[in-house]
Structure formats: C-alpha cells, structure tokens
C-alpha cells in the first residue's frame, strides 16, 4: 500500500472505492475538494482506459470556478435530494460539464456520500440500465441521456428493493451492493460508458 492509500502492484497504482470515499471529505463545502473527488472518481471509473478524460478535464478547465462550485453544490445535494444533485450536473437534460455524462457524474454523486451505507445517490450507467431493461424497466433508455426524473425513479426503485430485502432482524443490503449486482449481471453485449 502506498502513502496515498492506493494499492501498488507491478508498478501500477489501483484506486479502490475506499480510497475515493476518503476524498469525499469537504467536497460538499469546498470547491477544491469537490474537484479532488471528481478526479479520483474519474480515475476509479475509467480504469485503464481513461476514455474521454482529457475532454472532461478541458471542459472543467474552460470554466474552473463554475465547474468546481457546481460540483460542490451537487455533492451537498447528493446527501438528501438525489434528483436535484443529478439536475445540478444535468440541467435541462444536457450535460453541464462537457463529456461528463450521467454514467460518470453519478459515480461522483455516489462517492460524495463518503461510503455511508444510506447515501441515496447510486451509480447509473449503461450496464446497470441494460440489466434493469432485462428485468422489465422498458422506459429506461440503456444508452444514457437520462433525465433527472428517470434518475429519481431509479434511486427510489433501489431504495424500495433495499426495503423489500430487509431481513427479519431489520438488516437491509446496501444500495450500492444492489447497483453492483445490476452492473455485474448486465447483458454481455453492453460494454460502453458515457
């Protein structure tokens, strides 16, 4: 383990969910911390591909103050009002930050919870959407461009599933475990991210 908390194996660093969660501290109150969280969420979500990350960084650099302030507001909203946190980064059903679409900014909103099991924001990407489609959610476009109302319905659905899966002792599964199951059980032909 390196000093930054990343796992090091064969000269490559791997960013874990736990490491990204530690970057959530301050994101809701400090625009600089919000950017730090975004960079780590992008690195985690991109894996070895880094597809579109240069475009994302250029879009943020074009208006750094606006982007970082908006990210901080979205992190704050993510704690209680997922649909408004989503809408903050996707106003009028358009990406606020170029090349930072729902598949990636929902990762940011998820990590803004700092690992809290009850954090209401969850990741919605093409794999999760495809799994939901296969399960019968036919109104969800698997290709992305989801309006805020769709994201609101998605987090409400997973909250309902958590409630339904609560055992007799009152233990409910984490929402991110349900999301991860959906991600892992997507139809094989779906493998793209926005």
Word description of this protein:
The protein has nine helices and two strands, in the order ββααααααααα. With 194 residues, it is mostly helical. The chain has one domain (7-184). Helix 3 crosses helix 4. Helices cover 52% and strands 3% of the residues. Strands 1-2 form a two-stranded antiparallel sheet. The chain is globular. The mean pLDDT is 90. It has helices at 17-22, 31-46, 53-62, 64-78, 82-89, 102-111, 126-134, 148-164, 175-184, and strands at 7-9, 12-14.
User: How much strand?
Assistant: under 5%
Structural class: mainly alpha
Which parts are unreliable, with pLDDT below 50 for 5 consecutive residues or more? none
For the largest beta-sheet, the strand count, sense and barrel status come to: 2 strands, antiparallel
CA(first)-CA(last) distance: 31 Å
Number of domains: 1
What spatial form do the alpha-carbon principal axes imply? Answer: globular
Task: Note the total helix count.
Answer: 9
Percent range of helical residues: 40-55%
Radius of gyration over alpha carbons?
Answer: 16 Å
Record the strand order, biggest sheet. 1-2
**Helix and strand pattern:** EEHHHHHHHHH
Total strand segments: 2
Mean pLDDT: 90
């Amino acid at each position: 383990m390196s000093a930054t908390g990343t796992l090091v194996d064969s000269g490559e660093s791997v960013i874990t969910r736990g490491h990204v969660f530690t970057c959530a501290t301050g994101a809701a109150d400090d625009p600089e911390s919000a950017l730090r969280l975004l960079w780590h969420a992008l690195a985690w979500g991109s894996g070895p591909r880094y597809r579109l990350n240069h475009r994302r960084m250029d879009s943020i650099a074009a208006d750094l103050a606006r982007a970082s302030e908006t990210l901080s507001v979205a992190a704050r909203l993510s704690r209680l009002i997922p649909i408004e946190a989503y809408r903050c980064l996707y106003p009028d059903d358009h990406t606020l930050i170029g090349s930072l679409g729902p598949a990636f900014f929902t990762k940011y909103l998820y990590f803004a919870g700092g690992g809290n099991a009850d954090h209401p924001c969850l990741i919605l990407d093409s794999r999760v959407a495809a799994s939901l489609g296969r399960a019968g959610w036919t109104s969800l476009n698997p290709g992305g461009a989801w309006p805020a109302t769709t994201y609101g319905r998605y987090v409400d659905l997973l909250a309902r599933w958590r409630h339904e899966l609560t055992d007799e002792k009152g233990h409910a599964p984490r929402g991110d475990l349900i999301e991860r199951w959906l991600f892992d059980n997507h139809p094989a032909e779906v493998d793209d991210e926005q």
